[in-house]
Write a structure and sequence with these properties.
This is Xylose isomerase-like TIM barrel domain-containing protein. Residues 69-304 form the Xylose isomerase-like TIM barrel domain. There is one protein chain. The chain has 330 residues and is of the alpha/beta class. The protein contains ten helices and twelve strands. The strands form three sheets. An eight-stranded mixed sheet has the order 1-2-3-12-9-8-7-6. The protein has a two-stranded parallel sheet with strand order 4-5.
C-alpha cells in the first residue's frame, strides 16, 4: 500500500459523501463506560494513498457489533480496535473471539486499521513493583499477538512514567531507574515484536519521561531495531515544545502520528481544544512531515469529548483536517 503526500488528503468529502475513490476507516474502543471512534481515511490524490483519521468519544455502553454497524452506516470502511482489561476485546481474548470480530468486520465489509490500549497507565513498565512490570509486559505481548492476528503494523505503547500528575497518587520513579526499566522492558519485548511482524510505537505523553525529541531519538536508536519507533502525538508536545521540531528530529523513526491541538495559556488538561483552536503550528507540522516523507496514518485524537451532541465532533474535526491537509473547503 503506497501513500501520497499528506496534503493530497480530502477528509470532509469522505465523511459526508462517500466518493468511492479511497478507503475510510473508523476506530473504536470498547470499554465498560465509553466508546471511542477513530475514523481513518486514505484517498487517491495522485494515484497513490495517504492515511488520516479522527477520534471522538460517545457516552454509554456499546458492543463491537454495534460499533461496526455504526461505522458501516456512517460510510466508513474500517476500524481500529483498543485492547481493554475487560469486555469483548480484552487480555483474555481467545482466537475464536478474534475470528468472531474478523467475521463481523468481513460481513460488514470493514477492515482493521490499528490497535491501541490505555492499560499502560495502570501497569507502567517502570513501576517499582515487579508484578506490575510483568503485567505491563503481558499487556504488550497480548497487544502484539492481537495486532498480528488483525494485520496491524504498529501498536501504541507507553513505556512507563517518572510521574503522572493527572492520576492521583500515581507512583513516582527516579528518572534514571525509569529509563533503565523501560530499556529492559522494550529489549525484552522486541523479539516478540519481530516475530509478530508488528512495530512498537512509543507515544510521547505527559509522563515526565523521554521529555525531549533528542532523548526519545536516543532511546529508540539504542535498540538498533526497525521494530521500534515513535508514535508522535503533536498536541502532547505543545505545552513544553514545538511539534514541528520533534518531527524533524525524529524523522524516519516516526511510525504513526496523532493530531490534536493545545492552548498553552489555558494550561493542564484544560488546554486541549478542537483542531485549529490551539497553538499547534499545523502549516509547520505539515511541512515537516512532508520533508521527512511521512506517509502513514495521521490520527486526530479529539479530547475532551463534547458534553452534548457528541458525534458532532467528527464533522467539525473533518473540516479542520481538510484545512490542515490542504484540501478545498466545499
Amino acid at each position: 500500500m503506497s501513500a501520497s503526500p499528506l496534503y493530497e488528503q480530502d477528509v470532509v468529502e469522505l465523511f459526508i459523501d462517500e466518493q468511492g475513490d479511497g478507503s475510510n476507516y473508523i476506530e473504536l474502543e470498547v470499554s465498560p463506560h465509553n466508546v471511542v471512534f477513530d475514523a481513518l481515511i486514505h484517498n487517491n490524490g495522485d494515484g497513490s494513498e495517504l492515511k488520516a483519521d479522527v477520534t471522538w468519544q460517545l457516552e454509554g455502553d456499546a458492543s463491537i457489533a454495534d460499533c461496526i454497524q455504526t461505522a458501516k452506516q456512517a460510510g466508513f470502511e474500517g476500524i481500529e480496535l483498543s485492547l481493554n482489561g475487560e469486555g469483548e476485546l480484552s487480555l483474555s481474548a481467545t482466537d475464536q473471539e478474534v475470528r468472531d470480530i474478523q467475521g463481523r468486520l468481513e460481513e460488514a465489509g470493514l477492515e482493521i486499521a490499528g490497535l491501541a490500549t490505555g492499560l499502560y497507565w495502570d501497569y507502567p513498565m517502570t513501576s517499582a513493583r515487579p508484578e506490575i512490570r510483568t503485567k505491563a509486559l503481558d499487556v504488550c505481548k497480548k497487544q502484539l499477538e492481537l495486532a498480528s492476528a488483525f494485520g496491524v503494523d504498529t501498536i501504541l505503547v507507553i513505556p512507563g512514567a517518572v510521574g503522572v500528575d493527572f492520576i492521583p497518587d500515581s507512583e513516582v520513579t527516579d528518572y534514571e531507574v525509569a529509563y533503565e526499566r523501560a530499556q529492559e522492558a522494550i529489549a525484552h519485548l522486541l523479539p516478540y515484536a519481530e516475530r509478530a511482524g508488528v512495530s512498537i510505537g512509543i507515544e510521547n505523553v505527559w509522563n515526565k519521561f523521554l521529555v525531549s525529541p533528542l532523548e526519545l531519538r536516543t532511546f529508540i536508536d539504542s535498540f538498533n531495531s526497525n521494530y521500534i519507533g515513535s508514535y508522535l502525538d503533536v498536541g502532547n508536545v505543545v505545552q513544553n515544545g514545538y511539534p514541528e521540531q520533534w518531527v524533524r528530529i525524529l524523522g524516519h523513526r516516526i511510525k504513526k502520528v496523532h493530531f490534536k491541538d493545545y492552548r498553552r495559556q489555558a494550561g493542564g488538561l484544560h488546554g486541549f481544544v478542537d483542531l485549529l483552536a490551539g497553538d499547534v503550528n499545523y502549516p509547520a507540522v505539515m511541512e515537516a512531515l512532508q520533508a521527512i516523507g511521512y506517509d502513514n496514518y495521521v490520527t486526530a485524537e479529539m479530547i475532551p469529548p463534547y458534553t452534548h451532541h457528541s458525534k458532532q465532533i467528527i464533522f467539525n474535526t473533518s473540516k479542520a483536517m481538510d484545512a490542515i491537509l490542504g484540501r478545498s473547503q466545499e
